[in-house]
C-alpha cells in the first residue's frame, strides 16, 4: 500500500512542506514530503496540523465517530468523545492552543492543559469561540443587542450586518474575518 489518500482534505502545506494523513481503518499515518513521520493505532482524520519547534501538533477526529483527539507527535494529549471543536489550532510564540465545546460549556486547551472558560455576564447563545494569538475570542448573542457581539480582551465589539436574512450561523474564519 502507498498509504496516500485520494481525499484532498487530507493534504496540507505547512512551512513549505507537504503533510498528508492516511488511515486504513486500523492505523493512521502522517507523512511529511512523502516520508512517514508518525504512525499510531486508531482510524482518525487530521482536521488541523501545525509544527512548532520541530514538534507536530494535530487536531483529529475519529473516523465514523464523534469527538476529537489532540496529539503532539502522534501522542494523545487530550481526547473527548463528547467534545466539539471550535475552530482550529492557534500558535502564539511556542504555545499551541484551541477551543472546544462540551455539554454546553466551553474550554480552551493551551499546551495540552484544559481550562474551563468563564463566560461574561449577559452572554446568550454562543456562536463560536476561538483562540487568536493566544487570546480568547467569543462570538455571541447578548440580551442587550440584536446583533452578534465579539468579546475579546475585556472589550465588546458589535458585529453589524444587513438584515436581509436572519443569521443562521456565524463563525470566525481567521484573525480578521467572520462568516
Indicate the topology.
Elements: E1 11-14, E2 17-23, E3 27-32, E4 35-41, E5 44-52, E6 55-62, E7 68-72, E8 75-80, E9 83-92, E10 95-102, E11 105-110, E12 113-116, E13 123-132, E14 135-142, E15 145-152, E16 155-158, E17 172-174, E18 177-178
Antiparallel strand pairs: 1-2, 2-3, 3-4, 5-6, 6-7, 7-8, 9-10, 10-11, 11-12, 13-14, 14-15, 15-16, 17-18
Overview of this structure, please?
This protein has 179 residues and is an all-beta fold. The chain is 0% helix and 64% strand. The chain has no helices and 18 strands. The protein has strands at residues 11-14, 17-23, 27-32, 35-41, 44-52, 55-62, 68-72, 75-80, 83-92, 95-102, 105-110, 113-116, 123-132, 135-142, 145-152, 155-158, 172-174, 177-178. The strands form five sheets. Strands 1-2-3-4 form a four-stranded antiparallel beta sheet, with no helix packed on it. The protein starts with 10 loop residues before the first strand and ends with a strand.
